[in-house]
C-alpha cells in the first residue's frame, strides 16, 4: 500500500464532487432511506450461485471506506469452496454449542430468543459465499518491519457497513455471524497472527420460504437515535 520512503503529504484537487440542489439532496436521501429499509438479515438461503465478480466489486466498494491514517486495516476472505465452507461450519458450530450450552450466560441467551437462533448454522454451507472479515492489528513494510494501524475496530466496522450496503444494492441478502472465539478462522483461511477475525458474512439469494423474525422489523424511531443541535 505504501513504503517507508514515501510517507509525505502530496495533496490532489478533489477528484469528485456532487453539486445537488437542496431538493435533489432530499430526494436522494429519501430514496436511499427507502432502499435501506428493504435490507433484511436473512438466515434462509438458496444455493443459487452468485458470480465472483459481483462479490469482488462489493468488496472493492468496502475498500473505499475511510480508515485511520488511511492504513485500510482490513482483509476480506471470500469463500465459495464447498469443502472449506463445510470446515468453517463445523468449527463454528462447535463454538456455538459451547455458547448455547451456557458459555453466553442466561441474559444473552434470553435476549436472542426473539431472533430464533441456535447452534445449528446451515447457512454456512448453503449460502454460495462466505465473506470472512479480518481486522489487521498491525501491518508490515516490504522489509518485514512492523507499523502500527490506528482506529482499527472503527475502520473495519465502517468498511463492513459499506460491504453490507453494497451486497444489498446488488440484490443479495446477507447474515452476519460472529461465533466466539473465532481464531479457528485464521487457521482455516491461512491468515497471519496480525489479523483478528471479526465476523463471517453469509451471502446469497433468499430461499423461497425465507422468514425473518418479526422483532427485526422494529427499528428505533429517529428521536431515540438522534438529537439535533441547531
From TrEMBL:
It holds the Pfam family Nitroreductase. Transmembrane segments: none annotated. SUPFAM superfamilies: FMN-dependent nitroreductase-like. Keywords: Flavoprotein, FMN, Oxidoreductase. It comes from the Bacteria. GO terms for molecular function: oxidoreductase activity. Gene3D superfamilies: NADH Oxidase (3.40.109.10). Signal peptide: none annotated. This is Nitroreductase. It comes from Phaeobacter gallaeciensis.
Amino acid at each position: 500500500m505504501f513504503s517507508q520512503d514515501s510517507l509525505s503529504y502530496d495533496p490532489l484537487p478533489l477528484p469528485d464532487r456532487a453539486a445537488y440542489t437542496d431538493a435533489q439532496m432530499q430526494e436522494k436521501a429519501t430514496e436511499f432511506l427507502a432502499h435501506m429499509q428493504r435490507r433484511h438479515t436473512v438466515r434462509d438461503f438458496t444455493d443459487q450461485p452468485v458470480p465472483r465478480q459481483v462479490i469482488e466489486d462489493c468488496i472493492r466498494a468496502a475498500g473505499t471506506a475511510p480508515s485511520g491514517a488511511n492504513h485500510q486495516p482490513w482483509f476480506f476472505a471470500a469463500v465459495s469452496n464447498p469443502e472449506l465452507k463445510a470446515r468453517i461450519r463445523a468449527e463454528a458450530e462447535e463454538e456455538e454449542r459451547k455458547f448455547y450450552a451456557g458459555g453466553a450466560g442466561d441474559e444473552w441467551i434470553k435476549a436472542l430468543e426473539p431472533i430464533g437462533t441456535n447452534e445449528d448454522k446451515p447457512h454456512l454451507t448453503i449460502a454460495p459465499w462466505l465473506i470472512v472479515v479480518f481486522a489487521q492489528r498491525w501491518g508490515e513494510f516490504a522489509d518485514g518491519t512492523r507499523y502500527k494501524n490506528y482506529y482499527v475496530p472503527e475502520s473495519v466496522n465502517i468498511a463492513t457497513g459499506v460491504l453490507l450496503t453494497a451486497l444489498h444494492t446488488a440484490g443479495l441478502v446477507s447474515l452476519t455471524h460472529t461465533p466466539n472465539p473465532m481464531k479457528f478462522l485464521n487457521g482455516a483461511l491461512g491468515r497471519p497472527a496480525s489479523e483478528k477475525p471479526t465476523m463471517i458474512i453469509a451471502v446469497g439469494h433468499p430461499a423461497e420460504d425465507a422468514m425473518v423474525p418479526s422483532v427485526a422489523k422494529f427499528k428505533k424511531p429517529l428521536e431515540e437515535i438522534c438529537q439535533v443541535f441547531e
